[in-house]
């Protein structure tokens, strides 16, 4: 007998589960390979700060106790750094959890969320998981957010707007003027979620609109950031958001009481003290992205200029799935863009120099195989 279960929202039936990059061990086993590099999940190839390692080791001795559910110390440090009151800060089990909690809190059946497509797939997943309808506005011809078109797509059912800046999977950014124009058009009671997971990689740009500045000026936006990328703590799952206090109070009611574990809190605190580690990673990333871009262009492919730690490569008419599978057979795991509706591209994270060498060599061979 098959048991049937009925989800609270029928939209869950339309949800395609998140496809993470394949684990290294699985590819090694499947392909019978010993050397594998993973350039699929926009992780930090340089590891993490030694200060974070030390803090985690110390925190490990105390894991018989529950963590501080209020995240007092971490919020205190973030509050100082960001110059926003601690009451405006919400911590998450990865920034992903905050994106999801907002949907859980604010959506009922038939409500709309508004976001660009392709953008981070979790906006779609969180929407469908909570009965919502995702209004997906295509990126413009340069694969950037078309914020004017998004503003035109606002309706009286829009409950959340998500804007990834920089965007994943394209690596593109929106500038100040266009974002300000957009913010002026989003109703005050509709949270505009500025997802700044890759903020550190783009903050040096003259025209980069730092969400925190707009928040401090009194805009009722939600600025989401993470320790998973520039700080190298992806496996610990810790992120945060800054938002209007009434919204923070509501989110704190629906989240799990101990959503961020104690080792993650300790490591995140220490990571905030290691600017040198972050800077070394950013310098390495910029150099390697440039090198990948030049090498890829030299074999006749094109890239979307990226302000992140990954790059979207257009395969000049070849199938992204073929190239993805070909690379996998050679021990290089990248991200297929089929789930994002971009079947002629792949997304590659900038790794260590030798990892990128391995990728470039394998890509050259595969491109020659599929003329
Ligand atoms: C745009 C964007 N937002 C959020 C996340 C989620 O990151 P985390 O949950 O690790 O903080 C990612 C991860 O890849 C991302 O690309």
Care to describe what's here?
This protein is an alpha/beta fold and 371 residues long. Helices cover 40% and strands 15% of the residues. The protein has two domains: 10-47 and 276-369, Aspartate Aminotransferase, domain 1; 55-270, Type I PLP-dependent aspartate aminotransferase-like (Major domain) (Aspartate Aminotransferase, domain 2, 3-Layer(aba) Sandwich). Pyridoxal-5'-phosphate (PLP) binds at residues 42, 94-96, 120, 164, 168, 195, 197, 226, 228, 234, 239.
Question: What distinguishing features does this structure have?
Answer:
single chain, 371 residues, alpha/beta, Aspartate Aminotransferase, domain 1, Aspartate Aminotransferase, domain 2, 2 domains, 7-stranded mixed beta sheet, 4-stranded antiparallel beta sheet, 15% strand, globular, binds pyridoxal-5'-phosphate
């Amino acid at each position: 007998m098959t048991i049937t279960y009925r989800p609270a929202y029928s939209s869950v039936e339309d949800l395609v589960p998140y496809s993470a990059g394949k684990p290294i061990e699985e590819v090694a086993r499947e392909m019978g390979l010993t050397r594998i590099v993973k350039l699929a999940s926009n992780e930090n190839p340089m590891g993490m700060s030694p200060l974070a390692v030390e803090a985690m080791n110390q925190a490990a001795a105390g894991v018989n106790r529950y963590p501080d559910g209020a995240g007092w110390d971490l919020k205190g440090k973030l509050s100082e750094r960001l110059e926003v009151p601690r009451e405006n800060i919400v911590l998450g089990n990865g920034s992903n959890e905050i994106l999801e909690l907002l949907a859980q809190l604010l959506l009922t059946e038939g409500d709309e969320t508004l976001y660009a497509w392709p953008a981070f797939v979790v906006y779609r997943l969180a929407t469908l998981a909570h009965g919502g309808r995702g209004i997906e506005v295509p990126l413009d011809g340069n694969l950037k957010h078309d914020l004017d078109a998004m503003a035109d797509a606002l309706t009286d059912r829009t409950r959340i707007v998500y804007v990834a800046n920089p965007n994943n999977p394209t690596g593109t950014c929106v500038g100040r003027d266009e974002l300000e124009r957009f913010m002026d058009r989003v109703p005050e009671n509709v949270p505009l979620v500025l997802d700044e997971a890759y903020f550190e990689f783009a903050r040096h740009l003259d025209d980069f609109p730092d969400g925190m500045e707009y928040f401090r000026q009194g805009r009722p936006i939600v600025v989401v950031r993470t320790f998973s990328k520039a700080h190298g703590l992806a496996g610990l799952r810790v992120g945060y958001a800054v938002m209007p206090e009434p919204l923070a109070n509501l989110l704190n009611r629906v989240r799990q009481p101990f959503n961020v574990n104690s080792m993650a809190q300790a490591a995140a605190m220490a990571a905030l003290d290691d600017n040198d580690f972050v800077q070394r990673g950013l310098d390495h990333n910029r150099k390697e992205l440039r090198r990948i871009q030049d090498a890829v262009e030299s074999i006749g492919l094109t890239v979307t200029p990226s302000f992140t730690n990954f790059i979207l490569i257009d395969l000049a008419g070849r199938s992204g799935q073929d190239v993805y599978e070909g690379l996998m057979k050679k021990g290089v795991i990248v991200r297929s863009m089929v789930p994002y509706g971009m079947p002629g591209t792949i997304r590659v994270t900038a790794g260590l120099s030798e990892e990128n060498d391995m990728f470039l060599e394998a890509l050259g061979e595969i491109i020659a195989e599929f003329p």
